[in-house]
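It is worth pausing here to work through a concrete case rather than discussing structure prediction in the abstract. The textbook approach is simple: state the sequence, then state the predicted structure, then interpret. We follow exactly that order.
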Amino acid sequence: MRETNGKSGSPSDHAVFDALVRGGLAPGAVVLDSGAGSGARHHHSYGDAATVVGVDLDRNLSRNANVRHAVLADVDRLPFKSAAFDLVFARYLLEHLEHPATAFREMRRVLRPGGRFVFQTPNRFHYVAIAARLTPHRFHEWFRGRRRSHFGLSAADTDVETFPTRYRANDRRTLRRLAAASGFRVVTLEMIEPEPTYLFFHPLVLRAGRAYGRWVEERERLADLRCVIVGELEAVEDGGPRPGSGR
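Step two, the predicted structure:
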């Protein structure tokens, strides 16, 4: 198992996630985008390298131009055969899971042995996630609207994809436990502190966010206080090494 930490000048969490997904693709690969949504806020498409199936309960999934096949379903009950996919990825899905253990077992079931599960999700110990847990959902909708206006984003960024968050799988210890219980081996769990553009609303707050970022980036013992977790898990063979053992 490899656990790495973001450093100053390192790629963004989006770039790290994209590199892990593309590294797991091969000619003819069949890929599941779990929690695909409308695709409005996702700038990377993998349709040029694989057959991408999108699954979500959001009916706006039909508008997602990044998937070849759109399937309305719950990630807790995936309507696919076992070992149907070469790779599963999830962009900002894990924080919304009500039953993460069930979802992880389903991800493992639909992956072939040796397949990869790549995800990008907030760290629940970061101040942004803590603030999100302490504020009502209507505040999140208002804040995303302000963000949309500030950055000139489309209405889809606010109106389509603001969902309740639970953070039940959102720290490295919990992720290692879920991986081990579901038949995965942890390949990497990267802790990344990106540029705090979410603090756009005041220059002093933004400056404080940048100071915090330097503080947690420069101290390895504070890695678990960084903002984003980008992870890669491998589906192990039955009877193989104990998932998460690092062997």
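Step three, interpretation. The chain has seven helices and seven strands. Residues 239-247 have pLDDT under 50 and may be disordered.
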